[in-house]
């Protein structure tokens, strides 16, 4: 129930940002990296697997504070989407998976890649084998470029936002950890009473 409520709130903020039309989106130009990355339509399966990735992390993670960095990343990204919307030229593709994605995706929400930010957060709080979370997040980040949903600059921006969003909980863990007990010191010898 908590996961469903969080997802509905995310959709409200994400789609609400798209409804605020302050300025036309800037068309981003591909970098040499983007030109070198091939278009691999089959990697849409990896791209869409983020929904499973996030669900499993939230399902298995017992610390409810994990919603905090996700909310921070969403708010930062949506603020950028409102004041500086960006878009890219996407290749035409006749694919049911892409069609389903584009029903809810907002083409003006390119920089930063919120897809990447949330994958970074999911990997940071993945409660099982750590390498699985890291590998899954890397695969998702790469798939954002191989599906031509994002450019390299979007991915870089998403990594920065994801990292910044995790900082509050990292600081809290540092400040809330109890101080280590100092090693026991041997008792000091009692001064001898003066002889009478």
Write the topology of this structure.
Layout (H helix, E strand, L loop, with lengths): L1 H18 L6 E2 L4 H5 L7 H5 L1 H11 L6 H17 L2 E2 L8 H9 L9 H11 L5 H17 L5 H25 L20
Parallel strand pairs: 1-2
Structure notes:
The protein is mostly helical and 196 residues long. The protein has a domain at 41-88 and 106-172. Helix content is 60%, strand content 2%. The protein has helices spanning 2-19, 32-36, 44-48, 50-60, 67-83, 96-104, 114-124, 130-146, 152-176, and strands at residues 26-27, 86-87. The protein has a two-stranded parallel ribbon with strand order 1-2. α5 (67-83) runs antiparallel to α7 (114-124). It starts with a helix and ends in a 20-residue tail after the last helix. Mean pLDDT is 88; it is low at 173-182.
Features:
196 residues; two-stranded parallel ribbon; 60% helix
């Amino acid at each position: 129930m908590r996961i469903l409520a969080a997802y509905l709130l995310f959709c409200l903020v994400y789609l609400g940002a798209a409804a605020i039309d302050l300025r036309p989106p800037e068309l981003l130009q591909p970098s040499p990296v983007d030109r070198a990355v091939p278009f691999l339509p089959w990697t849409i399966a990896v791209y869409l697997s983020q929904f499973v990735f996030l669900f499993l992390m939230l399902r298995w993670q017992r610390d409810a504070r994990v919603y905090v960095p996700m909310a921070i990343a969403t708010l930062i990204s949506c603020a950028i989407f409102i004041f500086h919307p960006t878009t890219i030229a996407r290749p035409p593709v006749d694919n049911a998976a892409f069609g389903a994605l584009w029903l809810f995706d907002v083409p003006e929400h390119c920089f930063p890649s919120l897809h990447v930010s949330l994958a970074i957060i999911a990997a940071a709080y993945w409660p099982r084998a750590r390498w699985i979370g890291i590998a899954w997040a890397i695969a998702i980040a790469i798939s954002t470029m191989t599906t031509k949903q994002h450019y390299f600059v979007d991915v870089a921006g998403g990594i920065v936002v994801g990292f910044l969003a995790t900082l509050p909980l990292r600081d809290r863990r540092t400040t809330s950890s109890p101080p280590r007990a100092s090693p026991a010191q041997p008792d000091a010898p009692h001064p001898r009473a003066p002889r009478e």
